[in-house]
Amino acid sequence: MFIANFLKYLLYIFSTGARCEVIEVFAEAGSQAVLPCKSNTLFPTPSTIVWSKDNEGTVWRKQKSGLQYWGSNWVKKGIQRVQCPHYQFERGDYSLQINDLKENDGGVYSCRVTLGNIVSENVVRLRIIKVSVSQSFPIWGSDVSVTCDVTPWPYGASVQWMLNNNLFVSRSIISNRNTPKSTVREKATARLTGNWTCVVGFKGKEGRASAVLSVQGFIQPSTDNTKVYVAVGSAVTLPCVFSPGLTPSSPGWEKLKPGSLFKPIPGHLPLSFSQSLSSSQHSWDRSASLKEVGFEDEGRYRCSGTLQGQRLTRNMQLVVAKINSNISKKKGSVTLTCQLSDTTEVTDYEWVQVTYDVNGTQSVGSSHKGKTLSISSMSEEKRSEWTCRFYGKGGILGNITYHVPLMSGLSGQKQTNSSHNTAAVIGLSFLLVILLLILAQMYKNHQRRKKAFQYPAMETIVHNISNEREERAKRQVKK
């Protein structure tokens, strides 16, 4: 029995003897930290456990009697921020849990465990990481900084910044291995919005902390010089939406001169342009609309408003699409061309035939690639319509539809005019024939008279005989 206990004692000495190595622990401010203190002891529950912090005294202590004691700095309104779970003791785990971490919690802690006459000690250095933003809701264009502090700072540590889980690289990052903080300084723009994470690496350990930055200003369009695509004759909305809750002063719209980045065209907004605030709009929504877009309405527009004394502007470009038709009378076909006022973002064109049955049900038929399309004006295609879709790198940009029934009327008009011309030709030919017959008859009568004038005496005799017959007929009627 004595030999067995002696072997256990030796095993404990080798497994939990005093340690000189300092364990590094990183934790984010406001979260929970676990300071490790473990051993593979085979002895029962230790008589005393004492957690203390350098220059601050006892943090938590458990006496042999089972009583617990908390340092004054770790209890607030009867609530203890530290605890050492008893159910872990049988496993040789005496780790300390610290809740609601504060920056001044950073420092060196020691765990002293007494088992009989044996005392073991673990040393832990707790480093608190905190990310702070100079302005939680900076206005677009203002100066903003994001700072990573570590208490105590690990000199020689590596620091990386992540924005929305992507590595953020910028010349505006001020940090090095011997600087007690790392700071990102930028002009507030939409690209800075999101979750900022500071990743600190030191002696094979890694810690991280995060903060959210939300830039106030424009939320639509999200970027400057956004293109808005619309078909001729359609209505369109030009977005100008500020962050919810903001009410910009002196809001306005301008159309910029072609080729100019800033100069507006005074009083040159389209006639159908409307920038009045409707009852359904919020005060931060200053979007404008055009009821019926013409091809001449294309160009660059600027929306503006003042927030906290700073004038914010957002430029956007209205790209107008139309379809040009060229009718070939000889070939009996129509060539359609899809035309856009700006094609810099267009990578592909597609023509899609859309047909309708008796009930008006729509169905998609054949499709053709290319900017132009040639169709027969006399075919069944005239009972459908063709839609030109134009695509960019990110997918479809917009579309415009050509209603082929218009071409049907055109074809029918040609046929009607042709039939009218035919009828006119036939009528004129008939009148000409009649006229020729009349002329022929007149010519015959004329010739007959000429023959009669060659014998005047005979003509007188014939005339007298005719008169005598008429006189006789009259007398007989009187009797």
Detailed description of the structure:
By secondary structure, the protein is of the alpha+beta class. It folds into 5 domains: 2-128, Immunoglobulin-like (Sandwich), CATH 2.60.40; 134-213, Immunoglobulin-like, CATH 2.60.40.10; 225-314, Immunoglobulins (Immunoglobulin-like), CATH 2.60.40.10; 320-409, Sandwich (Immunoglobulin-like), CATH 2.60.40; 419-479. It has 3 helices and 33 strands. Strands 1, 3, 4, 5, 10, 11, 12, 15 and 16 form a 9-stranded mixed sheet that branches. It holds the Pfam family V-set.
Give the helices and strands, then pairings.
Layout: H1 2-16, E1 22-28, E2 33-35, E3 48-53, E4 57-62, E5 68-70, E6 75-76, E7 79-80, E8 82-83, E9 96-98, E10 107-115, E11 118-133, E12 143-151, E13 158-163, E14 166-167, E15 173-174, E16 181-187, E17 194-202, E18 205-213, E19 218-220, E20 226-231, E21 236-238, E22 241-242, E23 249-255, E24 273-274, E25 288-290, E26 299-307, E27 310-328, E28 333-340, E29 348-356, E30 362-369, E31 372-376, E32 385-392, E33 395-403, H2 405-452, H3 456-478
